[in-house]
Design a protein that fits this description.
Strand content: 25-35%
Distance between the termini: 10 Å
Helix content: 10-25%
Number of helices: 5
Radius of gyration: 18 Å
Structural class: alpha+beta
CATH architecture of the largest domain: 3-Layer(aba) Sandwich
CATH class of the largest domain: Alpha Beta
Number of strands: 15
Number of domains: 2
CATH topology of the largest domain: Trna Endonuclease, Chain: A, domain 1
Shape: globular
Length: about 230
């Protein structure tokens, strides 16, 4: 028998958040404040942009060789300070989920090598062809970014993301490591156990983020992982 002990790391907020469906049709829905009554639940307050959480200004990038590339070096510092992408020599590279979020937020104009505009729809299809979990990762990334958290690529545990407490990037290391899961998709618990143990050794808090079928993201803080082998 395998038992994973978790407690809900729920999010209460009042914010207009577009819900992007899996068929890529965009609709808008107003999320009302959620009351959390359980003593085991922890509230993640909705983010309000402040001086510690700068907003990136709109910019242009190119889709080259399957990568989203920023070539305007005058934009590198701002992107670094706001936690988007990584330097690669004289270029700046964005992950697909970062580019999708910036397209969604209307902060990015993405062009292909011929100079034609690349839409959110086109980039999301490309990402899903390359990695089946890309949509789940984007939805969770978007949810966290929309709340003011800086989110970076994880430590290579699969679908993990490093999440910085609001106002702490880049002064402090990431506080959380979030594992992105899709509701209804089976996950190898033994791999998850190993990842959680390793994250704990690193001094990080392990969070499991589950994308529900209706598009809502629920967060669970792992308090203990106990596994019993049968036989």
């Amino acid at each position: 028998m395998t038992v994973l002990s978790v407690k809900k790391f729920s999010i209460g907020c009042e914010v207009d958040r577009p819900i992007v469906q899996k068929d890529f049709a965009a609709t808008h829905q107003t999320l009302k404040s959620v009351r959390i009554d359980s003593p085991n639940e922890v509230r993640m307050e909705a983010a309000i942009p402040s001086a510690e959480e700068p907003l990136v200004t709109a910019f242009e990038a190119r889709l080259k060789g399957g990568r989203v590339v920023v070539e305007d070096q005058s934009r590198f510092q701002e992107l670094e300070q706001t936690g988007y992408g990584e330097r690669d020599g004289k270029r700046y590279i964005l992950k697909d989920y970062e580019a999708l979020f910036l397209l969604y937020a209307e902060k990015l104009r993405l062009l292909d090598e011929a100079g034609d505009e690349v839409s959110f729809h086109t980039l999301s299809e490309k990402a899903q062809r390359e990695a089946s979990e890309s949509w789940t990762r984007f939805m969770i990334y978007r949810d966290l970014r929309s709340r003011g958290y800086v989110v970076k690529e994880g430590f290579g545990f699969g679908t993990d993301l490093r999440v910085y407490e609001r106002g702490e990037f880049p002064k402090k290391a990431a506080k959380y490591v979030v594992f992105a899961l899709d509701e209804g998709i089976e996950t190898d618990v033994s791999d998850l156990r190993k990842s959680v143990k390793e994250i704990t050794r690193m001094g990080k808090e392990a969070i499991i983020a589950v994308l529900e079928r209706r598009g809502e993201v629920i967060y669970y803080k792992v308090s203990r992982a106990h596994f019993n082998k049968i036989g």
